[in-house]
User: What shape does this take?
Amino acid sequence: MQKFFEIEKSSERKARAGIITTDHGKIETPIFMPVGTVASVKTVHQRELKDDIKAQIILGNTYHLNLRPKMEIMQKAGGLHKFMNWDLPILTDSGGYQVFSLSKSRKLNEEGVKFKSHIDGSTHFISPEISMKIQREIGADIFMAFDECTPYPCDYNLAKKSMEMTHRWLKRCIDFNETNKEIYGHKQHFFPIVQGSTYSDLRKISAEKISESDQVGNAIGGLSVGEPEEEMYRITDEVTDILPIEKPRYLMGVGTPWNILESIGLGIDMMDCVMPTRNARNAMLFTWNGVMNMKNKKWESDFSPLDEFGTSYVDRDYSKAYVRHLFVAKEYLSKQIASIHNLAFYLDLVKVAREHIIKGDFYEWKDAIIPNLKNRL
Assistant: This one.
């Protein structure tokens, strides 16, 4: 039987290149995963995701998919892969982060979380068992433990209490999974999540607890919620020192192109973030030369290609002046072009990072390229 995760090349420090194998295909790590919250990566066709952006895995969201289209429709379709016509790997988050973001309309206790739908105000309840059941019904290749994500800043005692409940919830998730198997005929792989806010001692306790659960991969949650970048890097570094080397590590919700490269350097294999698509819809493009605001007047008469180093067709087919015009005119096509560009850039970024890990000069390359990525063009 093929291993779920194999390391192809390790650097002299923490960065590594590997391969994750699922029933829907292989994933070359380090990898960035586009976010397809409601069975759609916003403004982007699945064909573009696969053929042009070169996405190897995308995300779905338990909270949102359970509200619509609801699990009755999902099961009738045969799971999320068939529903959205995507035959590559999918990862689902557990809904914990979305429930956290609904802090004004939720009630949390040991059993689970009662919350009001952001769509119609109806009341719903998610527990560890319900989250696992929904994720079985969605049928993602990789699915996540139900946890509580704490805000930043967070009181130490609150962070400790929340972490301990996340650990108790993890046991309930595992117990449910052991007695409720996959329903669509393909293997699902379960990741627990390290919590503990920005407190080193709590993160150490959580990382050790999560490691002891002996699942096939592990995630780091509760970061990229407002803390300074240096804090995120510090905690990530401390946690990856503890999490098993032989299993993939997923840093949830990160981040900018430079966040991604720094995290890879700290031993992270998987990342996701809404930033490339959200910022794209607001006219911000990421490139190898820096960040472009496409509404700026400086692009008004620039008829050069959108991005001479870009890998997607939009970079060659459209000029900076044209894309600026679309944004100024509030034309929907502007958001689609920008989203395709940013996602293709993010996938190219991790692809090139992987090449440098294999070549053996990742850290030198990273330190040289990050100042360019941060340029404001």
User: Anything to note?
Assistant: The radius of gyration is 20 Å.
